[in-house]
Amino acid sequence: MDLSPHAADESSRLAALRQYSRADAPPAPGLTDLVQLAAAICQTSMAFIAFVDETRQRVLVSVGVEPFDAPREHALGHHVLGRTEPLIVADARKDPRASTDPLVTGAAKARFYAVAPLLAPECRAIGVLAVADRATRTLTDAQVEGLAALSRQVMTQLEVRRQTGILLEGEERLRLALDAAHMGTFDWDMITGRITWSRGHEEIWGLAPGTFGGTYESFAERVHPDDLGPLNSAVERSRADGTTY
C-alpha cells in the first residue's frame, strides 16, 4: 500500500527518524533477536535492520552479513519509504530497484531481497527490516505477514530506547539543576525501608560520599535529639493518613 503525499512528507519523515536514530546509542538488546527471528521465519541466510536518512541507508544490526552503509539512491530500502507493506524482490539483479544495492553488487551476492518498512507514528517509514538470500525465490503469505509483524516489534524496541533516552536526559537535567541550586532529593521505599539520596545530598549534610547508610535510622542519627521525637510522630502521621509534613 502506498502512503498519502502528506504521510510520506520527507521533512516529517526525517523529523521522526531523528527521534529514533542516535548515532552514539547502542542497538537495543532485543534487536538482534528480532533480526535472527526474521531470518529464521523467512528461511534466509541474511537479515538486517537499517535506518534510511537523507543520503544513506545505515545498518544498525545484522546477521549473515557485516553491517554496511549504502547510498540511499542505490539501496532497496529507499523504495519502501512510501509504503506500509513489505516489498518483495524475487530476483534482485533483474529488478532496477535492487540491482545497484551493495548487498546485491558486493561480496554478499544477494539475489533474493525483501524489505519491510519500519513505521513510526503516522506511518512515517524511518527504515527497514530486511531479509536476503543468495538464490532467487519468494516468500509465502505467512512469511510476508511474519516479516511485517516483526517490523512492528522492531519499532516497539526502538520506542523503548527513545523513551529511555528521554528519561535519562530528564534525570541529567534534574541533577544539574539540583547541583546548581545546592539542593538534594531523597526517595524512601516504604516497603523495603530503603532511602536513596541524590548525588550531592551527603555533601549538603556534611557527610563524605558513600557514607549514608540508606535507612531511616541512618537519617535519624543526624537529627538533633530535641527534634527527633516530634519528627518521628509527624512521619508516623504521614504514613498513616497521608498528612503532608
Q: What structural class should be given to the helix and strand makeup?
A: alpha+beta
Largest sheet: 6 strands, antiparallel
The CATH superfamily of the largest domain is known as GAF domain
Helix content: 25-40%
Name the poorly predicted regions: 2-8
Total DSSP helices: 7
Strand proportion, as a percent range, falls in: 15-25%
Question: Whole-number average pLDDT?
Answer: 89
Would you give the CATH topology of the largest domain?
Beta-Lactamase
Question: Can you count the beta strands?
Answer: 8
CA(first)-CA(last) distance: 59 Å
- CATH architecture of the largest domain, by name, is 2-Layer Sandwich
Roughly how many Å is the radius of gyration? 27 Å
Largest sheet: spatial strand order: 3-2-1-6-5-4
- SSE order, one letter for each helix or strand: HHEEEEHEEHEEHHH
Shape: elongated
Plain-language structure description:
The chain is of the alpha+beta class and 245 residues long. The chain has 2 domains: 10-168, Beta-Lactamase (2-Layer Sandwich), CATH 3.30.450; 182-241, Beta-Lactamase, CATH 3.30.450.20. Helix content is 39%, strand content 19%. It has 7 helices and 8 strands. It has helices at residues 10-20, 29-42, 102-105, 141-181, 201-204, 216-220, 225-241, and strands spanning 46-52, 56-63, 69-71, 87-89, 112-120, 124-133, 186-188, 195-197. The strands form 2 sheets. Strands 3-2-1-6-5-4 form a 6-stranded antiparallel β-sheet. Strands 7-8 form a two-stranded antiparallel sheet. β5 and β6 form a beta hairpin. The longest helix is centred in the middle third of the chain and has 41 residues, at 141-181. It starts with 9 loop residues before the first helix and ends with a helix. The model is unreliable at 2-8 (pLDDT under 50).
